[in-house]
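Trying the structure run again after the queue cleared.
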Amino acid sequence: MTPIPTPPQALQRRAGASIISGPWPTYSQFKGIPERERWAIYELAKAGRRAMEDKGFAMGESYDQFVQRVTAELEI
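Done. Tokens:
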């Protein structure tokens, strides 16, 4: 039997911007590396989010929630 793929969900929209609701990348796999490298990964995560926002995407996760989640996952 051939599986029938489920259609992708349409992105929600907020004031003309597509809302990205997840799933979000997780960073907890990096918590065992040296702190200096974890801070570099944190900066890359922020830059990636900023680039998506600059392209017109709105995140379902607030910036404060994003910062709290990523810093907790990286243990910084």
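The beta strands are 12-14, 17-20, 57-59. Worth checking whether this holds up in the mutant runs.
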